[in-house]
Design goal:
The complex is a heterodimer of chains A (56) and B (395). Chain A has 56 residues and is of the alpha+beta class. Chain A is 18% helix and 18% strand. With 395 residues, chain B is α/β, with parallel strands linked by helices. In chain B, helix 1 (14-25) links the parallel strand 1 and strand 2 (30-33). The chains are: A alpha+beta (56), B alpha/beta (395).
């Protein structure tokens, strides 16, 4: 997953909605763990569109 | 580094601070951790609360953290019909607009005065288990990684609700039970500074737009959109910007602050306890599913948790069975209403703008008595029984 830090508000909407509990954030960082299966939920519901799917 | 205590509370929001306060008042050794650099900021909240519950949690209203006192609330339909509730009629549903950054600090101060230790900028990164049971947490802070061992963990980590999941409870939400939100602090706007406003309908699919005044010509203007209705990313921002452009009162406004957040709109976890674990407030998904309001719920559940922990400390038993009174307390106080409003939310999310227009007109015309969600649903039940079909007996 790719994070646009210009957009991210660190609001936690993604982390609380992640079905695999794979996102950790604080005021400064937003990290995806290896549990992320790229389901795309967070991309859809981020209120400011800060997340995009990283294409391999 | 290793710390040992009776109770570790994760998150210094209202729920966490109340739990820490009441556990510390019960003479327990309490550590309260907060991952952010400032308690109560950045904001993740519209800051509107009713007035009645403060006495219930033993907190005196303080002008330091009350930003504005509301005279009532306005519900605005898709075509602009309005229904105004005055304080005399609106009862428990209107009240204050807070300064959350000061309110949250005030509650944390109370926890500290009661004896709780606060560790700032310290985030929980996992739960330590022994024989499958939680016995502590892993944390990451300014001084590096550490472990905090405790007889019981209070998960007060808000919407993220990660601690409970690390401990083994499932707090995963369905997309229909999530509202994704963005809010602007706007100035230079022409609003009534005494009325909180709710705009319903397709302006905010599955949610609403709120305008909560913070003084003259300044307000929290925000939106919640049901996640199941989001398609592209940035949908809440798109809908909020679109609404602001359309609303004559807001279109010359300037933005002073941008915040976001997630809100659950389900009736709460099936179980908010496990061995050595209590989940409170937003982390337990205990939020009014219609309004998205959770401050009162968090404060109540935090207080219940602290009191039950005090009792448990007398025997040293923090098993799920020993914590069961917590589960009973919050359910007795809130469960019926949470469930009823959840059913109502499910239905409202499906209503067309035409029906919502009719409903608001109907409310404006009928004599509802004290206006609260319950009485509104009663009035709707009379004129539009199909809207409440399936949960009539809860009304």
């Amino acid at each position: 997953m790719k994070v646009s830090y210009e957009k991210c508000l660190h609001c936690g909407c993604c982390a609380g909605s992640c079905p695999r509990n794979a996102i950790y954030l604080n005021d400064y960082i937003l990290d995806f763990s290896e549990d992320c299966n790229k389901c795309g939920r967070c991309v859809k519901l981020c209120p400011v569109g800060a997340l995009t799917m990283e294409r391999a | 580094m290793r710390y040992d205590c009776d109770v570790v509370v994760v998150g210094a929001g209202p729920g966490g601070s109340m739990a820490a306060k009441y556990a510390a008042l019960g003479k327990l050794n309490v550590i309260l951790i907060e991952k952010k650099a400032e308690i109560g900021a950045p904001l993740r909240c519209a800051e509107g609360v009713s007035k009645k519950w403060l006495s219930e949690i033993g907190v005196e209203p303080d002008p330091k953290w009350i930003c504005a006192d509301m005279a009532g609330a306005t519900i605005r339909s898709p075509s602009g019909f309005t229904f105004q509730l005055d304080e005399s009629k609106a009862g428990s549903e209107v009240g204050y607009v807070l300064e959350r950054h000061l309110f949250d600090k005030a509650l944390a101060e109370q926890a500290a005065s009661a004896g709780a230790k606060i560790m700032m900028r310290t985030g929980c990164t996992g739960v330590i288990k022994d024989n499958g049971k939680p016995v502590g947490i892993k944390v990451r802070g300014m001084d590096g990684d550490a472990e905090i061992y405790a007889k019981c963990i209070v998960a007060a980590d808000g919407f993220e609700s990660q601690v409970a999941r690390w401990a083994g409870l499932d707090t995963t939400l369905e997309m229909k039970d999530i509202d994704t939100c963005i809010q602007y602090r706007m100035t230079n706007i022409d609003i009534d500074p005494k009325y909180c406003e709710f705009v319903i309908g397709s302006a905010a699919p599955g949610g609403y737009v709120w305008i909560f005044p913070k003084g003259d010509r300044i307000a929290n203007v925000g939106i919640g959109v049901q996640a199941a209705k989001c398609k592209h990313g940035a949908d809440p921002k798109y809908y909020l910007d679109r609404y602001i452009k359309k609303d004559e009162r807001l279109k010359n406004g300037q933005i002073l602050e941008i915040v976001g957040g997630g809100v659950s709109t389900c009736p709460g976890l099936d179980e908010a306890i496990a061995d050595n674990l209590i989940v409170v407030g937003d982390a337990a998904r205990i939020i009014d599913p219609i309004t998205g309001g959770g401050i009162a719920h968090a404060c109540r559940t935090g207080m219940y948790a602290g009191k039950v922990l005090t009792e448990c400390a007398k025997t040293g038993d923090f098993s799920k069975k020993a914590l069961a009174p917590y589960e009973k307390m919050w359910r007795d106080r809130m469960e019926d209403k949470l469930y009823r409003n959840w059913m109502a939310k499910e239905r409202f999310a499906t209503l067309s703008d035409e029906i919502l227009d009719d409903l608001v007109k109907m409310m404006a015309e009928s004599d509802i008595g004290e206006v609260n969600v319950h009485n509104l649903l009663k009035a709707i039940k009379e004129k539009y029984p199909q809207v409440v079909e399936g949960f009539e007996d809860l009304i």
